Amino acid sequence: MECVSFNNLPLSVIQPAYTAYEVDTLVEPRVPRLAQLLFKAEERRLRAALGRLAEYDDAGAQAELAGALALTPDYAEASALAGMLALREGRFSEAVKHLRAARKVEAGTGVLVRRFMPTFRILLRISRFQFFPVYLDYYGVSMMLIVALWKSGESGEALRVLRELQNLVSWHDEMRVLAGEIHCLAGDFAAARDVLSAEDRPSRDNLDVTIHILRALTELECGDHHRAAITLKNDAIYIKERNPYLTTLAKFVYSHALEQDGLPVLALRESCGLRLKRVLNPDVRNYMLWREAKLKNVIQSLSGDRLLEASEFKWVLSGEQVTEQSVLDVLPPEPKGPRRVYVSPPKTDYERMRRLDEMFRATREYAQAADGEEVEDEEQEAEPVPDFDTSRVCDWSISRAGDSEICYYDFRGMREPPEALTTGEKRLKQIEEVAAVSGGVLLLLLFIRACF
Asked: What does the alpha-carbon distance between residue 279 and residue 397 come to, in Å, rounded to a whole number?
């Protein structure tokens, strides 16, 4: 797959799945008005900055945060928000400075932001294939700092901060994905493969699919094509109700792994089943058509046992054959749903090729029908596709639409607000306590006077 690069898929096609409000929603904080009058100056600035963010006025919010930091340079709340805005705009050095300052207070990082705006959350790009929602707390600020260091080219420092966070909260899936991407950027594919393989399990959600895609790419880079195919087998064949763009990407990589593992028939079957509309770059679509034509030529040159061997995938575990799957004796599923149809084994090479041709045509027609496309006729399918020079590393990417997308913010989070008090509430509470004591003393004096 030296002719294709994998850049950032846009957020519009890989939106993370999580519980959230359907529309932008602001949950008003329960802060007494009298307490708001007793805020410190930097808290007033912070509240004003959040008000600007509620209107998506980043410039106004930055001005308010700059004023708060001018009053109190070590104000972690303002530093966290300023770091988020700098990261959002690609000012990585500034983001690193602010986010480092925000991490100095572990327990209280972002507590007032979450109190003032409980539903405020950030969608952070942790992979070329994945965004992940975080909140402004110590964990979220740490994740943003790691991304800022990674994007600024400081991979070693980013990994150090990641290990520090791991020692504090243990491994999470999003941390594993981020570590794998950082190792890949540094060219250490073996280390990336190890961290992504630490927890081997079937896919449960889109983040698991992302882990498997990244892991398969590192295995391909390490020359282990068979292991890459095994990694993606469940994602490519059995996965249901997942992100269609991630699923298409998994099948695309799976097809390449099968080809490199010496199984052109299976590789062609998987390629023909891809929905081309889900490949965002038209150059890659043309490359896929050219590759299918090349695979058909390879298959036509095979005969006898060589054709049979190229059609079977033998899964081997601990030296013992577990299962053996042949595509020659099984026709593709009909549009109504998957169904295995058993037929008599093919007797001649001609019969094998005829069945393969039926399978590839039916698979492509099924994929087009699922996307609402008109099925192309034989003359259109027979048109030659452009030739490609695959002897060099080309600049074709799956997608460049998301290259500038790093983080977003909105107000659809579902996190409970913290119970921490603002300085205004603390002052109001002190005033109430003093008033209560004073009132009690006054009542006692009045009672004593009335009695004597």
From this structure: 10
For residue 427, how many C-alpha atoms fall within 13 Å in the half-sphere facing its CB? 13
Parts of the chain with a pLDDT under 50? 313-343, 375-384
Assess contact for 35 and 427: CB atoms under 8 A: yes
pLDDT of residue 205: 83
Q: Give the angle 407-408-414 at the CA atoms, nearest 5°.
A: 115
**Six-digit token pair at 165?**
């966070």
As a whole number of angstroms, the distance between CA 368 and CA 373 comes to 5
Give the pLDDT of residue 326.
40
Residue 314's pLDDT is 41
Strands 121-127, 407-410: pairing kind: antiparallel
DSSP, collapsed to helix, strand or coil, labels residue 199 as: coil
**Which residues, 6+ apart, have CB-to-CB distance to 187 below 8 Å?**
none
What length does the chain have? 452
**Cβ distance 130 to 210 under 8 Å?**
yes
Phi, psi (rounded to 5 degrees) for 222: -85, 0
Domain ranges, ordered by start, for the chain = 281-374
Question: Do the beta carbons of residue 85 and residue 62 sit within 8 Å?
Answer: yes
Residues 6+ away with beta carbon under 8 Å from 203: 209, 212, 234, 235, 239, 242
pLDDT at 181 (0 to 100): 95
Whether the CB-CB separation of 365 and 375 falls below 8 Å is answered with: yes
Closest CA to 210 of 187, 188, 179: 179
Nearest-angstrom CA–CA distance, 135 and 118: 9
Q: What is the DSSP letter of 397?
A: E
Residue-level pLDDT at 339: 42
Alpha-carbon distance of 222 to 249, in angstroms, equals: 19
The answer to whether the CB of 95 falls within 8 A of the CB of 79 is no
Helix (H) or strand (E) holding 112: helix 111-116
Q: How far apart are CA 275 and CA 373, in angstroms?
A: 10
What distance in Å separates the CA atoms of residue 128 and residue 286, rounded to the nearest whole number? 22
Token output for 222: 């390490």
Do β-strands 4-5 and 396-397 pair in parallel, antiparallel, or remain unpaired?
Answer: parallel
Q: C-alpha angle with apex 358: 328 to 250, nearest 5 degrees?
A: 70
What secondary structure does DSSP assign to 292-349, as a single string?
Answer: HHHHHHHHHT--HHHHHHTTEEEEEETTEEEEEEESTTBPPPBTTB----B-PPP-SH
